[in-house]
Amino acid sequence: MPTEWDAFFDWLMGAEGRVAHHDPDDTGGQTCWGIARKHHPGWEGWAVVDRHAPKQPPRGEIEPLVSAFYQKLLASWWLSTPTPLREVLCDIVVNMGAGRAGRLLQEGINRRASGQGRLVVDGVVGPKTLAAASQRCTRLLAWDVCLARLDAYERIVARNPAQGKFLRGWRNRVASLKRFLSL
Fold first, then answer.
1. For 116-150, how does the pLDDT look when each residue is reduced to its tens digit (9 = 90+)?
2. pTM, whole model, 2 decimals?
3. How many domains does the chain have?
4. Quick check: is 74 in a domain?
């Protein structure tokens, strides 16, 4: 991937931290730089994590595995979306899942749309979503998707108040991403 990937990956690793062990309120469970064991139990990096537990695995040993995982996971978003929207959407995929990224893209488009220009928010990034996104200023759409993401975090906490302890960190992550992208 291009050098922009390296800069984004460095930012992403800072946002994700290292190996995080299970917090009973964290629905993602144990993660290694954002890769959740419960969603990706066969990922080859878990052998490295387990070999070094309870200590953190050496960055030089685990980072190439994490980068390869994310390059594969995010390739379609990264290669088909202009910057800075691609970075915003890729971070949502890592933090919230691909389906949520599609829904938040649609919510971001709808923030400035009216009437028939509004999209059905179903998470399916098909021809209508792509056409609507291509009509928008990429930087402004990236900003609107960030706002939609903050709203989504509020909805998560409204549905499950135990998640409230993560809200400040989620907000800080979005603020850090906006600074990284100069939004």
1. 889 999 998 989 999 999 999 999 999 999 999 99
2. 0.87
3. 1
4. no
